[in-house]
Each structure stands twice: as C-alpha cells, then as structure tokens.
C-alpha cells in the first residue's frame, strides 16, 4: 500500500507560520477597531452631533435683545421684549464679578478644554444612582457646557442632551476664546425676576449697574444661575445667605479676595430691593401701533428674521411727543367722562371669587381705569355704611357709602345699594378716601400730527389701552360728517369757484330711481338762508350749499380729490359730499395737514428711523437725500436741508384758500370755542347722521389734530350732540396745554395769492375800509387766485357818499340793501 505523507512540520516552519498568523490577527482586530470607532463616530454624529451649529455659526451668534423705543428727543420710553436683557462686552464686567461666577460655577474654567472630566464622571455616577427615583442628578456642567445648553441645546433632562452638550462644548472652546465664552455666558444666563444676563439681574435685584455692585451683591448674583427660585429673599433668605457665604469662601480660597473682605461681606445683609412693577406704559395706543408696524416689517423673533422685535435688539426713534400725548390723553378722556357724567353708575365690570386669589383674578381681568388716581377694585365685603375693597397688588381699602351716591344707570337709587361681594368696580383715590367711578361706554379716537413732515406726535385710541386694545384712531372706520365738506369745496375751488361764489342755501332734491323716488337734503337746523357765499356756507356748515356745490361741479371731482388726499375711495353719490363715506381719524387728520402743507402730499409716520443692534441704519421714514448733511466739518454756510420732493396733491392756492376759509369757522362759525386761544387756528366740526359721531379736525400752522366721539356699535348719541358743542371743546382743552409754549405762527400764503376785502355775506369786493365801525363784521380779507378775483364790487367813494348822512348805527343788511345797483 502507498506510504502516507508525514504530518511532521519542522519547528522553524511552525514558528514562521504562527508569527504570520498573529500578525494577521493583529491587523484584523485593528481593522475591526478602526471600523468600530468609525461606525461609533458616525452613529454619534447621526444621533447626537447632527444639527449642532458649526464654529462659524458660534462666532456669529448674538443673544436675543429687546427692541428699545425712544421719543422724538431720543429719550427711552418703552421696549419690546420677552426676555429682559442688557448686553455688555467682556471688558464692561468688573473682574471681581467674573471671579465670583467662576468660583461659584467653574473654578477650572480657564484650564479645561470645555468639559471637566472629574465633574462629568461624578454626574454620570449620580445619574446612575438616582435613575428611576424621580430625583434629578447634579449637573456637573462647566460654564462652556452651560453656554451650550442655554444658547443651542436646550434644557431637556436626558443622557442625549448631555452628550450633545459635551460635543458642542468642544466646538465652542475651539471656535471662541475664554473671554468670548464668558461674555456669552454673562449676557445669556437666566437669573430670575425675568432677568436674562447679569446686567439685567443687577438692575432687577439691586437697581444698580454691574459697575456699582458691592462684593456681597456680586456674590449673591453668582449663586443664582443653577436655580434662582431657590434663593428668593421672600421665601428662602437663610438659604440665600448660606449659599452667598459659600461663594465668598470659594473666592477667598481661590485668592480673589482677602479673608478680611470675606468676613466683612459675609456679615452684610442681602440688600435685595423689593420687586417693583415695570415702568408704566407710555403712550399705550401709540406704542401699540408702533409695535404692530414693526412686527409687520420685521416679525416677532429670530425665527422671522434677524431683526425680530422681541429678539433683534433694534433701536427705534419715534415721533412721540410726551407733552402732546399727555394733553391728548387727558383731553379725550375728560371729554368721554364728561359726556356720560349724567348717566350714573353703569354697574360692575366683572365678577371675582373673593374666597380665592382675588388679587390675581382682578389683575387678570385687565380693567383699564384710565386716570392715574383711578384703580380697579373688587368688593370684598359690605356692611352698614361702608364696603371693604381690594386692589390688584393685594392691598385693601374702604369705600364709604357717601363715596357711591351716584344713581345706577337706568334704575336710579344709590349705587352703593347695588354693590355685592365679588363685584369689580373702579374707584378714585383722593388722599385716603375712595369714591366710586364709572368707565364710560362712549369712546373715540384722537391723532395729532406735524403738518410739515407728517410725523404723528400723539395718538389716543380710546379711554385706556389696557381695557381695550382696539385703536379707534387707526382701526375704527367712522362717518366724518361735515369734516368732509372742506374737500368738496377744495374740488370746487379747483374747478372755477371762489370763496365769494354765491351758492343758494335752499331746498335741493335729486331723482334716485322709479322705486326710490326723490332724495331731498336738508340742513341740520331745518332752515334755509337763501343766497350766500361759499365762505359763509363753510363757516355755518350748511348741508344744502355743500350738496348743491358737489352737484354743480360733479361728484366725480369730489371723490377724486378725497382719494388723492388719502381719505377714502368713494362712489360718486351726493350723500358722500356730506360725509357718508367712512374713514379713520388718522386719514382725515393727515388730509387736513395737507391743507396746512400747501397742498403737498404727506404720509403719516410714527417711526422716524430704525437701527440694528450695532447702530446701523436699516430703515428711515424720510428718504430724501440731503447733500452735506454728514459733512465732517461745518463750513459756516447755510445749514444743509433735504430737498422738498413731495407730490402736489391739490393746488397750493386752493389749499391756502381752504385754510383761510376754515379760519373763519373758528372766528365766526361752529368752532368759536377755540377763538380765545390767541393764535391763528383753522378747523371744521362734524356731526354724522343720528348723530352717531361728533368730530373736530383742525389746528395751527405747526400742529394739526382731530378727534371723534361715538359708540363702538354706532347708535344715537342724543339729538343735542354736535361737533361744535362736544368735540371742539375737547380739542380746545388739548390745544390749551399742548400749544401753550409754541410760537404763534400765521399761516403762510403761497406765491400768487391775492388778498382782497370782501363782504362775506354778499361776496362783493370792497375797496378800502368801511367809513366807520358799523359794518366791519361783514368785511374780511379773502384769498383769491389771480384769475378768479370777483367782479362785483362796492366802491369806496359810493360807500362814503351814501353812508355820510346816516350817523345812526346801521345794520349790515340795511346798509347792503342801500347799495343795490353799485357794481
């Protein structure tokens, strides 16, 4: 049989074979390890690192900042924010404050690479021992990890979040310097009392800037990052003292303060100021309109764009004038209260459970009391001749029966008798005494504007913006009534008529249709005055003369003028000549401002310009170029000014003629209540059908305003309600305060206007003055375009000849009758 091969392998060959096998295994396991690590890294990236910001994104990060609003003089008046934060640079934080936060939060901050291995290991062990117990493990986070958590990762409680936080911490340390990391941390961290960042917290707890803080105050702020609610002075003062003193001890151990400093600071009280209410709302309706416009332009937060108003850190310069706003608020509010003063108490404003947290529930009702000394209150109990009342801040007071004697509207009897526990009311405080008040049902809106620029100086959209955010100055569409008539006559002046044109104040009817028949118009008084001049018709607000004028020139021209001046786009029906079309206070005030601006177009603006957080101008209302306005050195020549580039809406001479005519409304017409203000004033009153609205619009050469009163659901205000008796006195009250210190400036006539003496009742031109003072009331200076001077005249020599024999006082009508045939 054949010989089998030998199984013997030489020792040397076996050793070589084994060595090659071991090398193969090393390479194989090295490959396994490499691909395992690669797979682990891919999984780590896929599950944890994916979506984290890059180094470039970290370098470009900017914390959310509030939008700051300033008035026309640059004074801060409001801000829009969801997080109260003031951003400072690293160099603006005192070194002692930086050392305090490092001692309290991360003593190895300047040496670790982003995470503290020992602290992290301890946190993992603590998490494992507490897993499933419902207790939260200690964080073990460095300042860098806290920056990652606060800025990017979020605050969910999980292993995945800690892993993502650690990954991002390494990225942050690689992208930013330690000083940049600390700057982000000190500006971003939440420290309670709605304070984000140390500067904001410094103001919230001590009403100081960080540079003014003492050592114990700095140490207190340094204890807050982990859990501000655990160290409130109201509930945990002892715990706060212990923790503060621990931070002081750590600062001394780290060599940041001496032992003497530590002992002195530890003996000091916390010194925290009580919580205080935020600054009262300034210009509520004005600021709300500013906020709406900014949101429309920039959005709300960073998700809407880099300049979201709650996070973009914008700087807003507005046209807000505090003095004018206060005058407008006070005048309109007084007028609303005065209108309903006789109606009595209107009943409770709501109901609150007095056995629960009544102060919180009262505040949640958001009752707008208007005046500074009016307060929302809830009746807690009533006994005998007094009622105990409570306020939003939790304090209490007493309402005596004599303070609530007004009758209840529609019922009668003392209001005090109808009060019950839980009723929400409004009271006025005078010293230590309280008296019941009633919030008016009537409302209204008011706007004040600079007629040279279109800037809105003041805006009031109701009794109180807290009680109703609906802005009646910009959102309420109301019939303007007779305040629309100047636009009818402006169209007439542009189409051949003059202030001396004779118009019949008599019956006027138009055929509508076979079904509707005739539509006949009437004056407010129901009476007719026959032939009168245009001026007289405007001064006396005659409906029949207005509708006849609109019919004569064509309603298409009237609605075209109204549209060009921004009042509204109306159909060409005669009823619209009497103000039947709806508009807003803002629109009609802006249109009246165009009269004062010599017929040039204006755009009403509340915001002058907007700057981003770095001071760069990103929007400006006045877009006109101004050569030389930014010159490095003033050359002594006339100051550079932007060129006038506004569009001419109506003829400048027409605009001045209407101004001059409306001066007569103040001097002799329906707004004589303004006559004693001691300055040239123009304006027009208005009363819509019902009457449902009463108006006044007008002003001076440098300030134009307007207002209306009416119920939100339009209904009759009462047959006695008229613009001249209700709205005009409100404007008089406003102007007396707002214009008190303004220069007395006459209205400026444009080039080409001729001033001629006219008898305002007959339209006859008068050469020279009347021979004595008997007839002066009928003669005024009237403005005419050169091509439209009246031909009908009364000559001076004829006046003197016929008037000389008559020494007795003669009425205007008697004298004019004696002038028949003199032309």
TrEMBL record:
Q: Where is the Penicillin-binding protein OB-like domain?
A: 345-442
**GO BP annotations, alphabetical order:** cell wall organization; peptidoglycan biosynthetic process; proteolysis; regulation of cell shape; response to antibiotic
Per the record, the major location class is membrane
Give the InterPro entries listed for this entry: Beta-lactam/transpept-like, Glyco_trans_51, Glycosyltr_51/Transpeptidase, Lysozyme-like_dom_sf, PBP_transglycosylase, PCB_OB, PCN-bd_Tpept
Keyword Oxidoreductase part of the UniProt annotation:
no
Domain (Penicillin-binding protein transpeptidase) spans 444-733
Compartments in which it is found: Cell inner membrane
Membrane topology for this entry? Answer: Single-pass type II membrane protein
What Enzyme Commission number does this protein have?
A: 2.4.99.28, 3.4.16.4
Does the record carry Protease as a key word?
Answer: yes
All copies of domain Glycosyl transferase family, residue ranges? 74-251
Reaction(s) catalysed by this chain, per the record, are: [GlcNAc-(1->4)-Mur2Ac(oyl-L-Ala-gamma-D-Glu-L-Lys-D-Ala-D-Ala)](n)-di-trans,octa-cis-undecaprenyl diphosphate + beta-D-GlcNAc-(1->4)-Mur2Ac(oyl-L-Ala-gamma-D-Glu-L-Lys-D-Ala-D-Ala)-di-trans,octa-cis-undecaprenyl diphosphate = [GlcNAc-(1->4)-Mur2Ac(oyl-L-Ala-gamma-D-Glu-L-Lys-D-Ala-D-Ala)](n+1)-di-trans,octa-cis-undecaprenyl diphosphate + di-trans,octa-cis-undecaprenyl diphosphate + H(+); Preferential cleavage: (Ac)2-L-Lys-D-Ala-|-D-Ala. Also transpeptidation of peptidyl-alanyl moieties that are N-acyl substituents of D-alanine
* GO CC, alphabetical: outer membrane-bounded periplasmic space; plasma membrane
Instruction: Tell me the pathway.
Output: Cell wall biogenesis; peptidoglycan biosynthesis; Glycan biosynthesis
Which parts of the sequence are annotated with region: Disordered?
802-823
Task: Offer an example of a GO molecular function term for this protein.
Answer: serine-type D-Ala-D-Ala carboxypeptidase activity
Q: Where are the transmembrane segments?
A: 29-48
Family of the protein in this entry: In the N-terminal section; belongs to the glycosyltransferase 51 family. In the C-terminal section; belongs to the transpeptidase family.
Protein name from the UniProt record: Penicillin-binding protein 1A
Q: Which organism is it from?
A: Rhizorhabdus dicambivorans
